[in-house]
Design a protein that fits this description.
The strands form three sheets. Strands 7-6-8-5-9 form a five-stranded mixed sheet. A three-stranded antiparallel sheet has the order 3-10-4. The protein has a two-stranded parallel sheet with strand order 1-2. The termini are far apart. Mean pLDDT is 92; it is low at 1-23. The longest helix has 24 residues, at 2-25. By secondary structure, the chain is an alpha/beta fold. The chain contains twelve helices and ten strands. The chain has helices at 2-25, 69-77, 90-97, 149-160, 179-184, 201-206, 213-217, 229-234, 236-254, 259-270, 296-308, 325-333, and strands spanning 28-34, 59-65, 85-87, 103-112, 121-125, 140-143, 170-173, 190-193, 207-212, 220-228. 43% of the residues are buried. Helix 4 (149-160) links the parallel strand 6 (140-143) and strand 7 (170-173). The protein folds into two domains: 7-113 and 220-333, D-Maltodextrin-Binding Protein, domain 2, CATH 3.40.190.10; 121-217, Periplasmic binding protein-like II (D-Maltodextrin-Binding Protein, domain 2), CATH 3.40.190.10. The radius of gyration is 23 Å and the shape is globular. Helices cover 39% and strands 18% of the residues.
Length: 335
């Protein structure tokens, strides 16, 4: 009788162990967000999924589009997004307003205002009356989403010139693809132009740049990947695999030898001719760190702007909200 009980107990234990292993082998679901095509890795990551050696093994990936970073914060808080591609403006809002105190920066996406590289543009009609920032008094300014990084940059530039929202100008929201039409139809006097929309031939023909992000804030750690510490702790191995694949894909895009292939992908994603992307992943594009290491010093300075503008009440300590161990471990694998 005792021998039979021992056999049954051993069988049950083995069954539980096997079930546990089966559950543990299930790939971790990762949802990666993006806003602007080409600028955010999430918009083109899956176009090179053949380079992702761990995809479908330790994790699965879904790229999710958002109109702006503020709406990503809600998705993270609701458990609907694992790896948000946030900006310097969204991080303090997420930490202070949404209570996501365990949200951390895990890698670079792109930086603005780096000497020798592209900087986001704020455009007006080339033949219009606006020649200086002061000329925007009483005008209508278009942003993608209130509180986004380009929106904060715009407001910071106007404040430097003595102009305040609701008192001296009006802000309206419109998606990046519609900025050109808003300017052409004179529904907005100034629009936010980011890549690739700033390089559209029609935009370049009718508009001129009044100021850039570099003029407003200098160097910014504009966009970066983030995750919650709780998710990292629970799925660290899968997250390192994901970051390894992401870095491998990013390096493929940034390799000048692959420029033609990258331009072909950009053409397919945006439905534009490939010859329009001669600037892509060059010095005429946003700066991307080849090891995907963010500039945390710049980011600390950038989030201070949020407090200075009164958007948040405190300054986020970036040292507490960064964990670069994942991307560094991933990079070590690729050496």
């Amino acid at each position: 009788m005792r021998s039979r009980r021992d056999v049954l107990a051993a069988t049950a234990a083995l069954s539980m162990f096997g079930a546990g292993r089966a559950r543990g082998a299930d790939p971790v679901k990762i949802r990666l967000s993006w806003v602007a095509p080409l600028a955010n890795w999430g918009s083109i990551w899956l176009e090179k999924k053949e380079l992702a050696v761990h995809l479908g093994q330790s994790y699965t990936l879904e790229a999710v589009h958002f109109s702006g970073t503020p709406t990503m914060v809600t998705a993270v808080a609701n458990g609907e997004l694992e790896v948000p591609a946030l900006t310097f403006s969204a991080l303090p809002i997420a930490v202070e307003n949404a209570g996501l105190d365990d949200l951390v920066v895990i890698s670079d996406e792109f930086q603005d205002g780096v000497p020798g590289y592209y900087s986001s543009e704020y455009k007006v009609l080339a033949d219009g009356p606006i020649r200086t920032v002061q000329d925007l008094k009483g005008k209508v300014l278009a942003t993608n989403v209130a509180g986004s990084a380009v929106d904060v940059t715009m407001r910071a530039m106007l404040r430097k010139n003595g102009l305040e929202d609701n008192r001296d100008y009006t802000v309206i929201e419109t998606p990046f693809p519609t900025m050109q039409a808003m300017l052409a139809e004179k529904k907005a006097d100034l629009v936010t132009a980011v890549l690739p929309f700033a390089r559209a031939p029609e935009m370049q023909k009718m508009a001129r740049t009044l100021f850039t992000g570099r003029d407003a804030l200098g160097r910014t750690q504009f966009a970066f990947l983030t995750a919650r510490r709780s998710f990292i702790d629970q799925h660290r191995a899968a997250m390192v695999d994901f970051m390894e694949d992401t870095l491998r894909i990013a390096r493929w895009y940034m390799d000048p030898a692959n420029h033609a292939g990258a331009a072909a992908i950009a053409a397919r994603v945006t439905r534009q001719p490939p010859e329009r992307f001669d600037w892509l992943f060059t010095s005429e594009d946003d700066y991307r760190d080849p090891n995907m290491i963010p500039d945390l010093a710049a980011l600390q300075s950038n989030v201070q702007v949020m407090k200075d503008l009164g958007i948040v009440g405190t300054t986020v300590d970036i040292g507490r909200h960064a964990d670069l161990s994942l991307i560094k471990e991933a990079a070590a694998r690729l050496k």
